[in-house]
Amino acid sequence: MGLTATARGWLTDPVECGRSAGFGLYLHVPFCHHRCGYCDFATAAVGHEAPDERAGLFDRYLAAVVTDLERQVAAGPAAHAPRAERDTTPAAWPSVTSIFIGGGTPTLLGGQRLAALLRRVDTVLELAPDAEVTVECNPETASVELFGHLVAAGVDRVSMGAQSFSPHVLETLERGHTADRPLVAVEQARQAGVEAVSLDLIFGTPGERDRDWEHTLRTVLTAGVDHVSAYALTIHDNTPFGRAVREGAMPTVDEDLQRDRFDVAREVLGSGGFDHYEVSNWALGAQRRSRHNLLYWRHGDYLAVGVGAHGHLAGRRWWTTRATQRYLDAIEEGRSPLAGSEVLDDEQRGEERLLLGLRVREGLHPSDLPPIEPIALEDALNVGLVETSCGRLRCTDTGWFLLDEAVARLR
Known about the structure:
The chain is of the alpha/beta class. The protein has helices at about 10, 50-75, 110-125, 145-150, 165-170, 180-190, 210-220, 240-245, 255-270, 290-295, 325-330, 345-355, 375-380, 395-400, 405-410, and strands at about 25-30, 30, 45, 95-105, 125-135, 155-165, 195-205, 225-230, 275-280, 280-285, 300-305, 310-315, 315-320, 340-345, 385-390, 390-395. The radius of gyration is 21 Å and the shape is globular.
Protein backbone atom coordinates (compact mmCIF):
# COMPACT_ATOMS: atom_id res chain seq x y z
CA MET A 1 0.00 0.00 0.00
CA GLY A 2 2.98 2.25 0.18
CA LEU A 3 2.37 3.40 3.76
CA THR A 4 5.01 5.75 5.14
CA ALA A 5 5.86 7.06 8.60
CA THR A 6 4.30 10.45 7.78
CA ALA A 7 1.17 9.21 5.98
CA ARG A 8 -0.80 8.43 9.14
CA GLY A 9 -3.64 10.95 9.09
CA TRP A 10 -6.13 8.13 8.48
CA LEU A 11 -5.04 6.77 11.91
CA THR A 12 -4.36 9.95 13.89
CA ASP A 13 -7.17 12.19 12.60
CA PRO A 14 -10.01 9.97 11.29
CA VAL A 15 -13.41 11.28 10.25
CA GLU A 16 -15.60 8.19 10.73
CA CYS A 17 -13.23 5.37 11.69
CA GLY A 18 -10.92 4.60 14.60
CA ARG A 19 -11.47 6.83 17.62
CA SER A 20 -14.21 8.69 15.73
CA ALA A 21 -16.32 5.52 15.46
CA GLY A 22 -17.29 5.50 19.14
CA PHE A 23 -16.30 3.18 21.96
CA GLY A 24 -17.90 -0.18 22.63
CA LEU A 25 -18.17 -2.82 25.32
CA TYR A 26 -18.60 -6.49 24.47
CA LEU A 27 -19.71 -8.90 27.21
CA HIS A 28 -19.60 -12.62 26.42
CA VAL A 29 -21.87 -15.23 27.99
CA PRO A 30 -20.67 -18.69 26.91
CA PHE A 31 -23.57 -20.81 28.13
CA CYS A 32 -25.97 -22.66 25.84
CA HIS A 33 -28.50 -25.38 26.52
CA HIS A 34 -27.00 -27.34 23.62
CA ARG A 35 -23.98 -26.65 21.43
CA CYS A 36 -25.09 -26.75 17.79
CA GLY A 37 -23.01 -28.84 15.39
CA TYR A 38 -21.89 -25.87 13.28
CA CYS A 39 -20.92 -23.61 16.20
CA ASP A 40 -17.28 -22.49 16.50
CA PHE A 41 -17.85 -19.87 19.20
CA ALA A 42 -16.60 -20.00 22.79
CA THR A 43 -19.57 -21.80 24.31
CA ALA A 44 -20.32 -24.27 27.08
CA ALA A 45 -23.38 -26.56 27.02
CA VAL A 46 -25.15 -26.67 30.40
CA GLY A 47 -28.45 -28.32 29.49
CA HIS A 48 -27.40 -31.54 31.22
CA GLU A 49 -26.75 -29.89 34.57
CA ALA A 50 -29.20 -29.79 37.47
CA PRO A 51 -31.00 -26.43 37.90
CA ASP A 52 -29.24 -25.60 41.19
CA GLU A 53 -25.81 -26.35 39.73
CA ARG A 54 -26.59 -24.30 36.66
CA ALA A 55 -27.80 -21.35 38.75
CA GLY A 56 -24.65 -21.48 40.87
CA LEU A 57 -22.46 -21.49 37.76
CA PHE A 58 -24.33 -18.52 36.29
CA ASP A 59 -23.92 -16.49 39.48
CA ARG A 60 -20.25 -17.37 39.74
CA TYR A 61 -19.65 -16.40 36.11
CA LEU A 62 -21.41 -13.05 36.40
CA ALA A 63 -19.40 -12.21 39.51
CA ALA A 64 -16.22 -12.99 37.56
CA VAL A 65 -17.31 -10.82 34.63
CA VAL A 66 -17.99 -7.87 36.94
CA THR A 67 -14.60 -8.31 38.62
CA ASP A 68 -12.86 -8.56 35.24
CA LEU A 69 -14.59 -5.40 34.01
CA GLU A 70 -13.74 -3.46 37.16
CA ARG A 71 -10.07 -4.44 36.89
CA GLN A 72 -9.81 -3.43 33.25
CA VAL A 73 -11.51 -0.10 33.85
CA ALA A 74 -9.32 0.65 36.88
CA ALA A 75 -6.14 -0.14 34.90
CA GLY A 76 -7.10 2.49 32.32
CA PRO A 77 -6.64 2.59 28.54
CA ALA A 78 -2.83 2.64 28.76
CA ALA A 79 -2.87 -0.94 30.05
CA HIS A 80 -4.27 -2.11 26.70
CA ALA A 81 -2.70 0.40 24.31
CA PRO A 82 0.45 -0.46 22.31
CA ARG A 83 3.63 0.94 23.89
CA ALA A 84 4.15 3.30 20.97
CA GLU A 85 0.67 4.80 21.52
CA ARG A 86 0.70 5.18 25.31
CA ASP A 87 1.96 8.77 25.37
CA THR A 88 -1.11 9.86 23.42
CA THR A 89 -3.58 7.49 25.10
CA PRO A 90 -6.24 9.26 27.23
CA ALA A 91 -6.07 8.64 30.96
CA ALA A 92 -9.73 7.65 31.20
CA TRP A 93 -11.99 5.47 29.09
CA PRO A 94 -14.27 7.38 26.72
CA SER A 95 -18.05 7.25 27.02
CA VAL A 96 -19.51 3.95 25.91
CA THR A 97 -21.59 4.37 22.76
CA SER A 98 -22.68 0.73 22.45
CA ILE A 99 -22.89 -2.44 24.55
CA PHE A 100 -23.34 -5.89 23.09
CA ILE A 101 -24.01 -8.96 25.22
CA GLY A 102 -23.35 -11.99 23.05
CA GLY A 103 -22.82 -15.70 23.38
CA GLY A 104 -23.63 -18.44 23.67
CA THR A 105 -27.14 -17.73 24.82
CA PRO A 106 -27.05 -14.70 27.15
CA THR A 107 -30.78 -14.91 27.83
CA LEU A 108 -30.27 -18.36 29.36
CA LEU A 109 -29.13 -16.39 32.45
CA GLY A 110 -32.58 -14.83 32.82
CA GLY A 111 -33.63 -11.21 32.78
CA GLN A 112 -32.81 -10.40 36.40
CA ARG A 113 -29.16 -11.48 36.15
CA LEU A 114 -28.63 -9.63 32.87
CA ALA A 115 -30.30 -6.51 34.25
CA ALA A 116 -28.05 -6.62 37.33
CA LEU A 117 -24.99 -6.92 35.07
CA LEU A 118 -26.02 -3.90 33.01
CA ARG A 119 -26.71 -1.83 36.10
CA ARG A 120 -23.21 -2.65 37.33
CA VAL A 121 -21.72 -1.61 33.98
CA ASP A 122 -23.47 1.74 34.37
CA THR A 123 -21.66 2.35 37.67
CA VAL A 124 -18.22 1.38 36.32
CA LEU A 125 -18.20 3.13 32.95
CA GLU A 126 -19.79 6.32 31.67
CA LEU A 127 -22.51 5.55 29.13
CA ALA A 128 -23.39 7.97 26.36
CA PRO A 129 -27.00 9.23 26.70
CA ASP A 130 -27.96 7.49 23.44
CA ALA A 131 -25.89 4.34 23.95
CA GLU A 132 -27.20 1.32 22.04
CA VAL A 133 -27.57 -1.75 24.27
CA THR A 134 -28.05 -5.10 22.50
CA VAL A 135 -28.64 -8.56 23.94
CA GLU A 136 -28.57 -11.75 21.87
CA CYS A 137 -31.55 -14.03 22.47
CA ASN A 138 -32.42 -17.63 21.66
CA PRO A 139 -36.17 -17.86 20.91
CA GLU A 140 -36.52 -20.77 23.35
CA THR A 141 -35.62 -18.50 26.26
CA ALA A 142 -37.87 -15.59 25.29
CA SER A 143 -40.73 -14.26 27.40
CA VAL A 144 -42.41 -10.95 28.08
CA GLU A 145 -41.03 -11.08 31.62
CA LEU A 146 -37.46 -11.58 30.37
CA PHE A 147 -37.67 -8.67 27.96
CA GLY A 148 -39.34 -6.51 30.60
CA HIS A 149 -36.30 -6.87 32.87
CA LEU A 150 -33.97 -6.05 29.97
CA VAL A 151 -35.90 -2.94 28.90
CA ALA A 152 -35.93 -1.68 32.50
CA ALA A 153 -32.13 -2.04 32.55
CA GLY A 154 -31.68 0.00 29.38
CA VAL A 155 -31.71 -2.62 26.63
CA ASP A 156 -33.12 -1.11 23.44
CA ARG A 157 -32.16 -3.80 20.93
CA VAL A 158 -32.50 -7.60 20.78
CA SER A 159 -30.77 -9.86 18.26
CA MET A 160 -32.84 -13.03 17.83
CA GLY A 161 -31.31 -16.27 16.54
CA ALA A 162 -33.96 -17.61 14.14
CA GLN A 163 -31.57 -19.15 11.52
CA SER A 164 -34.41 -20.55 9.37
CA PHE A 165 -38.19 -20.86 9.19
CA SER A 166 -38.04 -24.32 7.58
CA PRO A 167 -38.37 -27.20 10.09
CA HIS A 168 -36.01 -29.62 8.35
CA VAL A 169 -33.30 -26.95 8.04
CA LEU A 170 -33.62 -26.20 11.75
CA GLU A 171 -33.29 -29.91 12.46
CA THR A 172 -30.07 -30.11 10.42
CA LEU A 173 -28.72 -27.09 12.29
CA GLU A 174 -29.65 -28.77 15.60
CA ARG A 175 -31.83 -25.89 16.68
CA GLY A 176 -34.24 -26.79 19.46
CA HIS A 177 -37.04 -24.32 18.69
CA THR A 178 -39.94 -24.76 16.29
CA ALA A 179 -40.12 -22.81 13.04
CA ASP A 180 -42.69 -20.37 14.39
CA ARG A 181 -41.11 -19.78 17.83
CA PRO A 182 -38.99 -16.80 16.69
CA LEU A 183 -42.17 -15.03 15.53
CA VAL A 184 -43.71 -15.46 18.96
CA ALA A 185 -40.47 -14.25 20.58
CA VAL A 186 -40.44 -11.11 18.41
CA GLU A 187 -44.02 -10.37 19.45
CA GLN A 188 -43.07 -10.83 23.12
CA ALA A 189 -40.12 -8.44 22.72
CA ARG A 190 -42.36 -5.80 21.17
CA GLN A 191 -44.97 -6.27 23.87
CA ALA A 192 -42.31 -5.62 26.52
CA GLY A 193 -41.21 -2.42 24.78
CA VAL A 194 -38.00 -3.45 23.00
CA GLU A 195 -37.36 -0.68 20.45
CA ALA A 196 -35.37 -2.62 17.85
CA VAL A 197 -35.43 -6.32 16.99
CA SER A 198 -33.08 -8.12 14.62
CA LEU A 199 -33.31 -11.66 13.24
CA ASP A 200 -30.21 -13.77 12.51
CA LEU A 201 -30.43 -16.18 9.57
CA ILE A 202 -28.15 -18.86 8.09
CA PHE A 203 -28.25 -19.85 4.43
CA GLY A 204 -26.63 -22.64 2.45
CA THR A 205 -27.30 -25.40 4.99
CA PRO A 206 -26.98 -28.88 3.42
CA GLY A 207 -30.47 -29.97 2.39
CA GLU A 208 -31.84 -26.43 2.17
CA ARG A 209 -33.85 -25.96 -1.02
CA ASP A 210 -34.45 -22.79 -2.99
CA ARG A 211 -38.03 -22.65 -1.77
CA ASP A 212 -36.90 -23.09 1.86
CA TRP A 213 -34.70 -20.00 1.70
CA GLU A 214 -37.34 -17.96 -0.10
CA HIS A 215 -39.93 -19.01 2.49
CA THR A 216 -37.58 -17.94 5.31
CA LEU A 217 -37.00 -14.53 3.73
CA ARG A 218 -40.67 -13.89 3.05
CA THR A 219 -41.53 -14.90 6.61
CA VAL A 220 -39.04 -12.28 7.82
CA LEU A 221 -41.00 -9.62 5.94
CA THR A 222 -44.06 -10.42 8.05
CA ALA A 223 -42.20 -10.83 11.36
CA GLY A 224 -42.30 -7.19 12.48
CA VAL A 225 -38.52 -6.77 12.75
CA ASP A 226 -36.40 -3.87 11.58
CA HIS A 227 -33.04 -5.56 11.05
CA VAL A 228 -31.81 -8.82 9.50
CA SER A 229 -28.40 -10.50 9.59
CA ALA A 230 -27.94 -13.34 7.07
CA TYR A 231 -24.76 -15.42 7.01
CA ALA A 232 -23.60 -18.17 4.70
CA LEU A 233 -23.04 -21.38 6.66
CA THR A 234 -19.35 -21.93 7.36
CA ILE A 235 -18.25 -25.41 8.35
CA HIS A 236 -15.23 -25.31 10.65
CA ASP A 237 -12.90 -28.29 10.92
CA ASN A 238 -13.08 -28.40 14.73
CA THR A 239 -16.88 -28.78 14.88
CA PRO A 240 -19.16 -31.83 14.61
CA PHE A 241 -20.19 -30.58 11.16
CA GLY A 242 -16.52 -30.45 10.18
CA ARG A 243 -15.98 -34.02 11.29
CA ALA A 244 -19.13 -35.12 9.45
CA VAL A 245 -17.83 -33.56 6.22
CA ARG A 246 -14.44 -35.30 6.61
CA GLU A 247 -16.17 -38.64 7.17
CA GLY A 248 -18.46 -38.18 4.19
CA ALA A 249 -21.63 -38.05 6.31
CA MET A 250 -22.42 -34.46 5.28
CA PRO A 251 -21.74 -32.60 2.04
CA THR A 252 -19.53 -29.54 2.21
CA VAL A 253 -20.99 -26.11 1.47
CA ASP A 254 -21.66 -25.18 -2.14
CA GLU A 255 -20.20 -21.70 -2.70
CA ASP A 256 -22.05 -21.17 -5.97
CA LEU A 257 -25.31 -22.03 -4.24
CA GLN A 258 -24.48 -19.67 -1.40
CA ARG A 259 -23.86 -16.88 -3.92
CA ASP A 260 -27.32 -17.55 -5.39
CA ARG A 261 -28.82 -17.45 -1.87
CA PHE A 262 -27.05 -14.13 -1.25
CA ASP A 263 -28.58 -12.65 -4.40
CA VAL A 264 -32.07 -13.91 -3.48
CA ALA A 265 -31.72 -12.34 -0.02
CA ARG A 266 -30.85 -9.00 -1.58
CA GLU A 267 -33.84 -9.18 -3.89
CA VAL A 268 -36.47 -10.32 -1.38
CA LEU A 269 -35.36 -8.18 1.56
CA GLY A 270 -34.90 -5.20 -0.74
CA SER A 271 -38.47 -5.61 -1.97
CA GLY A 272 -39.58 -5.38 1.66
CA GLY A 273 -37.85 -2.03 2.20
CA PHE A 274 -34.69 -3.36 3.88
CA ASP A 275 -31.53 -1.43 3.04
CA HIS A 276 -28.55 -3.71 2.38
CA TYR A 277 -26.06 -1.60 4.30
CA GLU A 278 -23.34 -4.21 5.01
CA VAL A 279 -22.32 -7.49 3.39
CA SER A 280 -24.46 -9.62 5.73
CA ASN A 281 -26.86 -7.03 7.18
CA TRP A 282 -30.08 -5.26 6.22
CA ALA A 283 -31.99 -2.54 8.08
CA LEU A 284 -35.23 -0.60 7.74
CA GLY A 285 -33.48 2.74 7.47
CA ALA A 286 -30.23 4.14 8.83
CA GLN A 287 -31.57 4.48 12.38
CA ARG A 288 -32.01 0.71 12.64
CA ARG A 289 -28.46 -0.21 11.67
CA SER A 290 -26.45 -2.04 14.31
CA ARG A 291 -24.32 0.71 15.82
CA HIS A 292 -22.14 -1.75 17.72
CA ASN A 293 -21.30 -3.71 14.60
CA LEU A 294 -20.65 -0.48 12.71
CA LEU A 295 -18.08 0.26 15.39
CA TYR A 296 -16.27 -2.97 14.45
CA TRP A 297 -16.47 -2.29 10.73
CA ARG A 298 -15.18 1.23 11.22
CA HIS A 299 -12.10 -0.02 13.02
CA GLY A 300 -13.16 1.39 16.39
CA ASP A 301 -12.04 0.55 19.91
CA TYR A 302 -13.87 -1.66 22.39
CA LEU A 303 -13.35 -3.41 25.69
CA ALA A 304 -14.03 -7.13 25.84
CA VAL A 305 -15.03 -9.06 28.95
CA GLY A 306 -15.76 -12.75 29.41
CA VAL A 307 -14.75 -16.12 28.01
CA GLY A 308 -13.25 -15.95 24.51
CA ALA A 309 -13.88 -12.20 24.23
CA HIS A 310 -11.79 -10.07 21.83
CA GLY A 311 -10.94 -6.41 22.46
CA HIS A 312 -9.21 -3.70 20.41
CA LEU A 313 -7.48 -0.43 21.17
CA ALA A 314 -5.29 1.64 18.83
CA GLY A 315 -4.04 -1.29 16.80
CA ARG A 316 -3.62 -3.75 19.67
CA ARG A 317 -5.94 -6.75 19.87
CA TRP A 318 -6.27 -9.10 22.82
CA TRP A 319 -8.40 -12.11 23.65
CA THR A 320 -9.24 -14.21 26.69
CA THR A 321 -9.20 -17.95 27.21
CA ARG A 322 -12.01 -19.89 25.54
CA ALA A 323 -12.32 -22.30 28.50
CA THR A 324 -14.94 -21.26 31.06
CA GLN A 325 -13.23 -22.97 34.02
CA ARG A 326 -9.86 -21.41 33.19
CA TYR A 327 -11.49 -18.00 32.96
CA LEU A 328 -13.21 -18.42 36.34
CA ASP A 329 -10.03 -19.70 38.01
CA ALA A 330 -7.96 -16.82 36.64
CA ILE A 331 -10.35 -14.11 37.79
CA GLU A 332 -10.93 -15.65 41.22
CA GLU A 333 -7.19 -16.09 41.79
CA GLY A 334 -6.38 -12.54 40.77
CA ARG A 335 -4.72 -13.51 37.49
CA SER A 336 -5.32 -12.21 33.99
CA PRO A 337 -7.60 -14.36 31.82
CA LEU A 338 -5.83 -13.21 28.64
CA ALA A 339 -4.82 -15.97 26.24
CA GLY A 340 -2.95 -13.74 23.79
CA SER A 341 -2.55 -10.36 22.11
CA GLU A 342 -1.01 -8.79 19.04
CA VAL A 343 0.03 -5.32 17.94
CA LEU A 344 -0.52 -4.49 14.29
CA ASP A 345 1.92 -2.27 12.39
CA ASP A 346 0.66 0.43 10.04
CA GLU A 347 0.70 -1.90 7.05
CA GLN A 348 -1.44 -4.45 8.87
CA ARG A 349 -3.77 -1.78 10.22
CA GLY A 350 -4.18 -0.43 6.70
CA GLU A 351 -5.19 -3.84 5.40
CA GLU A 352 -7.60 -4.28 8.28
CA ARG A 353 -9.10 -0.82 7.72
CA LEU A 354 -9.87 -1.80 4.12
CA LEU A 355 -11.16 -5.27 4.98
CA LEU A 356 -13.55 -3.90 7.60
CA GLY A 357 -14.50 -0.58 6.04
CA LEU A 358 -15.35 -2.00 2.64
CA ARG A 359 -17.92 -4.29 4.25
CA VAL A 360 -20.18 -1.25 4.65
CA ARG A 361 -22.24 -0.18 1.63
CA GLU A 362 -20.91 3.38 1.51
CA GLY A 363 -17.33 2.25 2.02
CA LEU A 364 -14.63 4.53 3.43
CA HIS A 365 -14.39 8.30 3.72
CA PRO A 366 -11.34 9.58 1.76
CA SER A 367 -9.75 10.88 4.98
CA ASP A 368 -10.01 7.41 6.52
CA LEU A 369 -8.39 5.57 3.62
CA PRO A 370 -4.86 4.25 4.09
CA PRO A 371 -2.55 5.12 1.16
CA ILE A 372 -3.12 2.87 -1.85
CA GLU A 373 -0.73 2.60 -4.78
CA PRO A 374 -2.40 4.11 -7.88
CA ILE A 375 -1.70 1.02 -9.97
CA ALA A 376 -3.33 -1.21 -7.35
CA LEU A 377 -6.42 1.00 -7.21
CA GLU A 378 -6.64 1.04 -11.00
CA ASP A 379 -6.43 -2.75 -11.08
CA ALA A 380 -9.26 -3.19 -8.55
CA LEU A 381 -11.39 -0.63 -10.41
CA ASN A 382 -10.79 -2.24 -13.80
CA VAL A 383 -11.85 -5.73 -12.69
CA GLY A 384 -15.04 -4.33 -11.17
CA LEU A 385 -14.39 -5.09 -7.50
CA VAL A 386 -14.43 -1.51 -6.20
CA GLU A 387 -15.74 1.87 -7.30
CA THR A 388 -15.46 5.48 -6.17
CA SER A 389 -18.31 7.82 -5.34
CA CYS A 390 -17.96 11.36 -3.93
CA GLY A 391 -14.37 10.54 -3.05
CA ARG A 392 -15.35 7.44 -1.08
CA LEU A 393 -14.00 4.01 -1.95
CA ARG A 394 -16.56 1.24 -1.82
CA CYS A 395 -17.11 -2.28 -3.10
CA THR A 396 -19.27 -3.09 -6.08
CA ASP A 397 -21.89 -5.81 -5.69
CA THR A 398 -19.37 -8.30 -7.10
CA GLY A 399 -16.63 -7.02 -4.82
CA TRP A 400 -18.82 -7.42 -1.76
CA PHE A 401 -19.04 -11.15 -2.32
CA LEU A 402 -15.32 -11.30 -3.20
CA LEU A 403 -14.13 -8.95 -0.48
CA ASP A 404 -10.86 -10.78 0.27
CA GLU A 405 -9.87 -10.57 -3.39
CA ALA A 406 -10.81 -6.90 -3.55
CA VAL A 407 -8.59 -6.06 -0.57
CA ALA A 408 -5.75 -8.24 -1.89
CA ARG A 409 -5.71 -6.23 -5.12
CA LEU A 410 -5.61 -2.95 -3.17
CA ARG A 411 -2.66 -3.94 -1.00
